[in-house]
Amino acid sequence: MSQFKFWNDVNSILSLDGPITKGPQSRCERKKTSNLLSGNSSLNSSKQRSLSTSCLNNTSKTPSKDSDGYLNSKTPSKTPLRKSKTPTPNKNAKTPGGDRFIPSRVASNLELAQFKLSQDENEPEGNTAKELKKAITDNIKGSTASGSHRILSYMNKAPAAPEGFQNPMRVLYSQTKTPASVRNTNRYIPQAPDRILDAPDIVDDYYLNLMDWGSNNILAAALGSRVYLWNAGTGNISQLLELEGNDYVCSLAWMQEGDCLAVGTMEGTVELWDCSRTKRLRVMNGHSARVGALAWNSYILTSGCRSGQIIHHDVRQREHIVTTISGHTQEVCGLKWSPDGKYLASGGNDNVLNIWAAVNEGFHTESTPLHVFTHHQAAVKALAWCPWQPHILASGGGTADRHIRVWNCNTGSCVNATDAKSQVCALLWAQNYKELVSGHGFANNEVSIWKYPAMTKVAELNGHTARVLHLALSPDGTTILSAGADETLRLWRCFVKDPVKTKDKENGVKAKPSALRQCIR
Questions:
Q1: Which helix (H) or strand (E) segment is 424 a member of?
Q2: Is the dihedral of CA 480, 484, 490, 492 positive or negative?
Q3: Which stretches of the chain drop beneath a pLDDT of 70?
Q4: Cα–Cα dist 294/304, whole Å
Q5: Which residues fall in a compositionally biased region of kind Low complexity (predicted)?
Q6: Which pLDDT score is estimated for 335?
Q7: How do residues 320-345 score in pLDDT, each as one tens digit?
Q8: Which residues touch 312 (CB under 8 Å, ≥6 apart)?
Q9: N or C: which end of the chain has fewer CB within 10 A?
């Protein structure tokens, strides 16, 4: 029997058609039960209330008779019911002065409101009211004869500024909005130099070029009559040469590749030195005054002197002078070949910037300039060619000009002109971030970084106490060197590439499969 009982229980559990006899009640059943309970409780409470009322009414000693004439009780209650001292809820509660729809009018001035309602708007004002209103109007707006209805107004115009006055706040309030490319930059630019080197006896002359950083990562610095070499990788410093007598070094220029250094002197000679062996290779004459600017284009060395003369030297030949050109009436203080070797830029103390075109299939220039720019109002020493746009040239003027101008040498037009507010001594391009760096003299003595082509200032590097005469860029493009008249060399690591972005670019470039791998099956 127990076995049959077990299987009956299993079947009843598994069956879904019949009613559920076990388990929790459904929601509708629970609701029905709660309604019944609440109804019973209300009936019980009403019965108790009626009984208590009847008991209170029958407090007399004489028993009462019902409707049929029979007594309700044989004996009266010995203990009469007493009235409860507990007050009925909300029985003694007072109704508040106002409800949520009709506010309290205690603070209202009903007499004034009645007067305003009964007053006639068309009733003419009295003379006293008109005089009072006129007096108030005259006091606030001024005399009615003037016809001015402005409460605040200038009686006299502002005095005119004196002739030649420049408002120093004009730059602050007239500056255009910063481009989004500049605003979104989150690159950290250190405001302190990474290293400071001493440069005693450096010649404080705006027209000389005394610093150059070669592709071999060696910095050449001319200090007076000596030339020193500083190896940026090892930190070693060595002396290359020392001129005799009153002669001193006026210019330096590394060859594009190799350890050959060209040195221009005050005597008008150009010397070639092999720095790996510390040996002088040759001396080239041809200038009658000091050589303040040098520039290489393959095996052609171009030199400019104080007389305004420019000479192209072929360092391979015994007769080294290839061409002599005259494009300036005063000292040549800036010389730069374009990266592709098509153009030569020369700047002079005569405020002239010349662009010379290279001869066909040659590394020297024609005898007449391609473009002559006279926009600068001071000496043009700072010159720099754009490495990613070889036809773009940046030039800077002296104290009387203080402008940085960008030129398109293919069309001969000025692309941009920016007021730098101080003497421009040196310029160079930073390819890692497409920016232009400028070194300034009086009156800021700072190094500025400009975003190209918007030419908005990104950073100002301060630290020099005298004008920044020269700038040089490391071969990897991460560090700039500034040489100042305060006899210090400061290295600024401003253009270090983001390692994350560099890695992403390297991963994005797919390696070209070799032909041998394609042939193997």
A1: strand 424-430
A2: negative
A3: 1-3, 15-25, 36-104, 107, 120-126, 140-155, 164, 166-186, 501-521
A4: 7
A5: 34-54
A6: 97
A7: 999 999 989 999 999 999 999 999 99
A8: 300, 301, 302, 321, 322, 323, 324, 325, 364, 365
A9: C
